[in-house]
Each structure stands twice: as structure tokens, then as C-alpha cells.
Amino acid sequence: MSIKSELKRKALHLTGLIVPLIYLIFGQKAAIGFVAFALIIFLILEPFRIVEELRDKVKRKLGIYVRDEVIALVERELDAISREHERHSIGAHIYFTAAALIIVCFFPRDIAIGAITVATLGDAIAAIVGKPLGKHRFKNGKSVEGSLAYFLSAFLILFLLIDLPHAFVGALAGMLAEFYELPPDDNFSNQLAVAFAIYLFRKVVF
């Protein structure tokens, strides 16, 4: 994926910040309702994205109301920001939303807001730094520069939202989850790694 497409993907990914913002302003119930609704909509629409026959039917119906050039442009843009494996399988938005729902339901307020914010911003910053500036790369394609960018941004976010010890633990857990791309998808595992690490640290140490 080109750096231009990667930036577009991360810009779309940043819409995930709506979740902690809603939690912060309106509380847990509103955040749960928003994320649950989004997940239901995504699950309904996902087959139309993955299955070519269904997608073609939608395109034919849309063609009655929307110009073919507009439909083709949207399809090209979506293909450009999709990972290769996502074109015929579950997309990152499903994993991200599912993890966010688990976190807002079962973790304390500060941990939920911190974990989702870190997973959203940290991932974007790591890609923005790592793709063009990463000079020291590992076998999996990740770079030292990208990983450090993730850690530092995550640390700063968690330090501002919680405190220094929790920031270090959460940032480290998130960086490792991002680096190893833990299954089923890093958009799922990254949020949960940060949340679980901070929660367990709090239970054991504090």
C-alpha cells in the first residue's frame, strides 16, 4: 500500500476517536449504545463489501440514482485503503468496533478511554512515521522508528489521561501487540492488550 493510501486509511481510522469522545462527554451508556449500533450496521453491510455478487447488485441499484463515475470512484478509494486480506474477509473496522464494545462494557472509564484513544492515535502515528521514515526494519516489515513513535504517543496519551506508571505499562503492551500483530487482527488485539495490561497492573500493584 502506498503512503498516500496509508494516510487515507489512517485518516478514516481516526474516526474511532468518536468513541472515547462520546464516553468522555455523555458517559458509558451512550458510548455502549453508539458502538453497538455502529457494529450492527457494519455487520449488516460487510457481506456487500466482501461478496462480489452482492456488491454488484448494490451497484446496479445505486446506478439508478448515482452516476457510474461516482460509484467507480468510491469503489476505487475503498479498494485503495483496504489491506489485501481484507478484500475477501472481515475488515479492520469490524475488529476495531468489536474490541471497543468489549472495552466500554467491561473496563473502568479511564482505561476504556485511554485504550481506545491509544489504539487509534498510536496506530496512526506509527504508520505516518514508520512508512516514510522507517530506516531500521525488522523481518515483519515493522520499523524501529514506527514502534518508537507508537510507544511515545501512547505513553503521552496515557500519562495525560491516567498517570506515569500506567502510561508505561499500557504503551509497552500496545507497542508489542502492534509489532507482533496479534490475532485475530491488530485492530482488535491492540485495544485489548492496552486495556488488559493497565487493568492487571492496577489490580496487582495498586
TrEMBL record:
Signal peptide: none annotated. It comes from the Archaea. The keyword Repeat does not apply. The chain crosses the membrane at residues 7-26, 32-51, 90-107, 113-130, 150-176, 188-205. Keywords: Membrane, Nucleotidyltransferase, Transferase, Transmembrane, Transmembrane helix. InterPro entries: Dgk1-like. GO terms for molecular function: ATP-dependent diacylglycerol kinase activity; nucleotidyltransferase activity. This is Phosphatidate cytidylyltransferase.
